[in-house]
Amino acid sequence: MIAPPAVWWRPLGRYERSWLTIALVWCLFLTAMMPLWFFLGRQNVPATSYRVAPAHYQKLVTDFAQKYQVGTENDLPIVAPPPGDVYLLAKAWQWYPVLKLKKGETYRLHLSSVDFQHGFSLQPINLNLMALPGYDYVIRLTPTSSGEFSLICNEYCFIGHHLMTGKLVVTD
Question: Which helix or strand (DSSP H or E) is residue 85 part of?
């Protein structure tokens, strides 16, 4: 058996060195830009999260829905709360309840799940958050246009995932 030569690879050519240098410089540039995107890019949702027992959160949402219910749609309560705290629950495989908010008013939207990890996507606004069991995510929300907006689960949550849609209605 013959031992391999001491230098068994071919040294980098001029073009390979150039491309590696460009890739390294680009990686360093993007790494340096991350803090700028974080602080100046205004891409981060201003949300606060709290630990909460799923059963306790479900009771909060049920009490909230009963207190402010104004109708039903597809066996889900439609709630029209005053500005302030509003609650939305993700559970297999629905968003509960249907929220009816007023344009220009400020709400604190509480969002959580009682069973699986769900993804909250408000369309066509493209606001995306995670709804996790045991965490109450609170977002300050001020609707700026009226209409009906879709709530979509964008995180695979098992067999009924494709059915998990909801609605948020904003009135003048």
Answer: strand 84-91
